[in-house]
């Protein structure tokens, strides 16, 4: 089992969710976050004054998937989240040692 964590642009959330559902990946956790990467934020003009925006709004997705589904999940996220512009995001994959579905007590692959 793996946890796929993706940080994407907020307006791409629905497209990514639909793409994951289409490849058979169900269930994800969504968190609104702020951050920056290589672009280091940007400047904006508000009422004639220029100011720096250091942290940009992003969406963090966390998806628990079986080992066999990792590649499909990553490909679906990449295809749906890509705009070709700076700040499209990142995907990180980590191992899950153990998972338990609280309601039924199912464990590991059966729990996800």
Please give a quick description of this structure.
The protein is an alpha+beta fold and 112 residues long.
Write the topology of this structure.
Elements: E1 2-8, H1 13-22, E2 29-35, E3 42-46, E4 49-53, E5 56-65, H2 70-81, E6 89-95
Antiparallel strand pairs: 1-5, 1-6, 2-5, 3-4
Helix pairs in contact: 1-2
Overview features:
112 residues; alpha+beta; four-stranded antiparallel β-sheet; two-stranded antiparallel ribbon; 6 strands; 20% helix; elongated
Account of the 3D structure:
The chain is of the alpha+beta class. It is 20% helix and 37% strand. It contains 2 helices and 6 strands. A 4-stranded antiparallel beta sheet has the order 2-5-1-6, covered by helices on one side. It has a two-stranded antiparallel ribbon with strand order 3-4. α1 runs antiparallel to α2 (70-81). The mean pLDDT is 90.
Strand content: 35-45%
Helix content: 10-25%
Coarse structural class: alpha+beta
**Mind summarizing the main beta sheet?**
4 strands, antiparallel
Query: What does the average pLDDT come to?
Result: 90
CA gyration radius, whole angstroms: 17 Å
SSE string, helices as H and strands as E = EHEEEEHE
Distance between the termini: 9 Å
């Amino acid at each position: 089992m793996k946890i796929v964590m993706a940080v994407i642009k907020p307006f791409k959330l629905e497209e990514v969710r639909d793409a994951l559902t289409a490849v058979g990946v169900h269930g994800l956790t969504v968190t609104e976050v702020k951050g920056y990467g290589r672009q280091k934020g940007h400047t904006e003009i508000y009422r004639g004054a220029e100011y720096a925006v250091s942290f940009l709004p992003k969406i963090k997705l966390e998806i628990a998937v079986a080992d066999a589904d990792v590649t499909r999940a990553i490909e679906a996220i990449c295809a749906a989240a890509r705009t070709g512009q700076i700040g499209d995001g990142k995907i990180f994959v980590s191992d899950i040692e153990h998972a338990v579905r609280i309601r039924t007590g199912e464990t590991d692959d059966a729990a996800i």
